[in-house]
Amino acid sequence: MNRVVIIGGGPGGYEAALVARQLGGEVTLVDTDGMGGSAVLTDCVPSKTLIATAEVMMTVKGSGELGLRVAGRPADEYAYGLGIDLAKVNRRVLDLATAQSQDIHEKLVAEGVTIVRGRGRLNGIAEVIAETENGEQTFPADAILIATGAYPREMPTAVPDGERILTWTQVYNLTQMPEHLIVVGSGVTGAEFASAYDAIGVPVTLVSSRKTVLPGEDPDAAQVLQDVFERRGMRVLSEARAQAVSRDDDEVTVTLADGRTVTGSHCLMAVGSIPLTENIGLAEAGVEVDDRGYIKVDRVSRTTARGVYAAGDCTGVLALASVAAMQGRIAMWHALGDAVTPLDTGIVSSNVFTSPEIATVGVTQAQIDAGEVRAIGITLPLSGNARAKMQGIHDGFVKLFCLPVTGIIVGGVVVSPHASELIHPITLAVAEKVTVDSFAQDFTVYPSLSGSIAEAARRLHGHSTEQLEQQIHL
């Protein structure tokens, strides 16, 4: 009894399929759009490819400080001697996404997964119906995984048209540089696109309903990013809530709740997402959802229906491809009787791909400030790091949290170029309960940005809360 049917080919779905085949399952994967889901086709892979181009522009813009002479002057047609062919950039973005999707498809087929192109829905807890171009097909199942993902939330007063008013799935259709891009929403998606378009030379206005950008991130990190945005010339409208967006020919107008208006050439709506859980037979099968439509799951990805699991953005656990993939793997390990460790969101690292990047793992500053966790923290600005000075890095820091007395590392924040790479040693420390003393005794390369992480650990050396607090506040 090992028939597995998976609905959705994103990270949760395709990783689950690979594990199920490894464990001897007979696997059918039903998907509508292509392997990789939104993570590969319209979200992570495309956006980070665009950001890679933006990173090169930022490097060139800062090259003068390093003694480089680049042809062209800011007054020229192309500042710093570089121009952006946005049509070519977006073609590359979409080509890479398609190629990555095809790679995943070929790997699944090679591993023996049956892929069905169609829209899947539950027919009870032991059968999936797929609506395909050739009609309905029925697949009996001993275990079902729902990995249907989510889609961009739309405001009824700001309906995207795919040309001037855009969601993050539509922005890659642009072939000309926007004259002025208004980004509505300052969460991760909004901040990343605002950062990228600002870097490639587009005037950007970021509409943020909160006091600072990235309200869900470390407050010190968010403040650094907002300061960087404003210093580079981005207009950040804080505590401003968009009420409506309208278009008049080649102009868009964003109306704010306080009556103010902002006019630009394009508007990118980044106001959250909605789980794809409607009309797929959940209620009839006994699969419960919460008041926002997310499927309720436990730490081994089980839903409230026996034999039915769920993974990824449709669960609302953490909207990260890495978490979706792990949820999918865990589901199959559990369903097919392998050893399984329940999902621990406390050791999940995440990254915001802005410039600079913001990476986090474990206990947060907010938890400590609220008294939920008793921990000690220290922040080391990168301005004192030798490698940072060599590379012309002025903004950013390393923050490390540890438990008092034991010194066990429980969390950290890195704000820096390539913070997504630097967070890994902290993630390992959190997962393996490494102490600051053990961490500090391991070698780091000199000079290196990672040296600041070890230095933070050394600064946290102590024997009691009182001694640590005195040491940190000297």
TrEMBL record:
Does the keyword field hold Membrane? no
SUPFAM superfamilies hit by this protein: FAD/NAD(P)-binding domain, FAD/NAD-linked reductases, dimerisation (C-terminal) domain
Q: Which cofactor does it need?
A: FAD
What is a single Pfam family found in this protein's UniProt entry?
A: Pyr_redox_2
Question: By its UniProt entry, which InterPro entries does this protein fall under?
Answer: FAD/NAD-bd_sf, FAD/NAD-binding_dom, FAD/NAD-linked_Rdtase_dimer_sf, Pyr_nuc-diS_OxRdtase, Pyr_nucl-diS_OxRdtase_dimer
Q: Which Gene3D superfamilies match?
A: 3.30.390.30, FAD/NAD(P)-binding domain
FAD/NAD(P)-binding domain ranges (all copies): 3-328
Alphabetized, the UniProt keywords read: FAD, Flavoprotein
Locate the Pyridine nucleotide-disulphide oxidoreductase dimerisation domain: which residues?
349-457
Task: Keyword check for Flavoprotein, yes or no.
Answer: yes
For this chain, the family text in UniProt reads: Belongs to the class-I pyridine nucleotide-disulfide oxidoreductase family.
Protein name per UniProt: NAD(P)H-quinone dehydrogenase
